[in-house]
Specification:
This protein is of the alpha/beta class. The chain has 4 domains: about 230 residues, TIM Barrel (Alpha-Beta Barrel), CATH 3.20.20.70; about 80 residues, Beta Barrel (Elongation Factor Tu (Ef-tu), domain 3); about 90 residues, no CATH class; about 150 residues, no CATH class. A hairpin with a 4-residue loop joins strand 23 and strand 24.
Length: about 650
Amino acid sequence: MELLVPAGDINSFYAALNNGADAIYLSGKMFGARSYAKNFTEEELKTVLRLGKIYGVKIYVTMNTLVKENEIKDFLNEVEFLYNLGVDAILMQDFGMISLCLEKYPNLVIHASTQVNNSSYETIKLLHELGVKRVVLPREMTIDEINKIDIPIELEVFIHGALCVSYSGNCLFSSMLGNRSGNRGECVGSCRLPYKLYKEDNLIDKGYLLSMKELNASLEIKKLPSTVTSLKIEGRMKSASYVGFITKYYRKILDNKTITKEDIDDLKSLFNRKFTKGHLFNDEDLINKSSPNHLGSHLGKVINITDNRIRIELDEELLQGDGIRFKESNKGMIVNYLYNLKDDLINKGNAKQIIEIDNKVNLNTLDEVRKTTSKKLEIQDFTITKKVPINIKVKAKIGEKFVLSFDDKENVVTYTGDIIEKSINNPISRERIILQLEKLGNTPFVAKHITFDIDDNIFIRIGDLNIARRTLSERLIGKRLNNYKEPVINNVTYEKVITNNKINTNEYNEIQRNPFYLKRILRDKSIVSNLFRPTKDAIASYHLNVFNSYTAYYLYKLGYKGVTLSVELNEKELKDLIETIREKFGQIPLIIKNKGHVEVMIIKGNILNIDISENYTLVNMKNDKFKVSYDGRCTHIYSSYELNLNENSFNYDNIYFI
């Protein structure tokens, strides 16, 4: 299985490359669903795509935000830029852009982001039929469900990192509350805030009720079905040190090496909100309602405090420069100075040793100490250390031309030199040939195995060997750089839709959300929130995130009788979008949700431990009130306010309101 690792900046990329990633996913400055990561400039994208090909690491670029109509030109320009550079795949969420790019760029590899909400069998089947090569499965999917996917499409599964509490692509909380869309890479982390839960007027729970623990499937990944193509680690907002460690950690597991207690402690000290095996392995212990923050690993306990010093009994090693946090007081610091009980400055405290540190956080209570950053795990040198193993063949027969070849399993390059002569005084030895050929130095290569077909007492100049070695290194780099399909760009044309069909929205019922086998519960007239090819009358709900004219058009062509536009668009954006759809694609029946509460989260299971009732309310620190319900399968959270768009301001034909 492929080990797929995140990179939020160029140093994280080098950390992933050096520590065993098979593939790296990253983003340019636009459309990458992590607006607050540093991300990559165009020059950096050129660099990483080149290095990926040289070192045999696939590069997937995330362009998985929803795309507004006025951004389509920039989006396609970015796609073509990456396409021409030979990107291994582009991740997308926007259904219109997926459909358009599959037609426009026929041999571009597209992966459907987890934001597409690939949570039903029918959705995955449709994406495969459209030409999508891989789906990133939602974190809610279980092994049993994955085992039932008999569709010949690549499956990518999250195995480590932050968990969204809502089905991805179905979370509108940040957008509805703070006007910053999670679907556009601007999530404010509403799920990481404290809430109070009321049943009618009675307070029944409080804390970080929606804050998920960190996914950690490291001890279980060998149980995943062989149909899984890629194991994905979350973390484009994480440091290069984190990326380097987590890559090495999972590389050890996949290479059947032993994970030590030190490895596990280091993992905890790098980042954890407590760990869970997630829905993937049916772990019901998902929420850490006491804290949404990094907890670190246990280090020791405070045994004495003065105004100037904190005395700590260590249970684990502490280095000068480590970061620590005192659990109950939640105060944290970097250990700049470390003392033994003789008041000598030291650079390390050992387990079972009593040490002192400066009390620069005004700690006044005896407390548990936790390590939150590790100095020894910090990466200082980002020189590329990864090497590509090659096999070398040497043929040197008297009276025949000298032949040297490099083989990286996918490419073979050959150098033919002068005719080999018999040595009179100074024959070259095999050992000397090996010595010269192994001098691959700053090239990406390392000699794994050298085979010989040579005569005794042959004469080869050392300079000729060096020229052959350098020539083949350059040729092999060239072969690896050019090992991708030439881009193909098609012109795509559309016929305008002409229809007199009318929709009675009162006839439609919204089906239960996100079941794995969707068709089993389709009603005759349904509003659906999963992407699939309708086999009965259906209209597309606002959960399909229609941000642009192409999404509306392609959904209509799939068979939907009408298409609901995104509730994340404001009135002006809705009007502009309607006019563009009419101009480009004709009379597609369009629906606007203009009243009532918006479902801001759909959550698998009974995450709040409530009854099947509609009398529950979540209240945040600003006293906003969110209606909550549980339907026996999923938890639903609704916006604190109702939509209020004036129907009379939308003076267009074939527009409906719900």
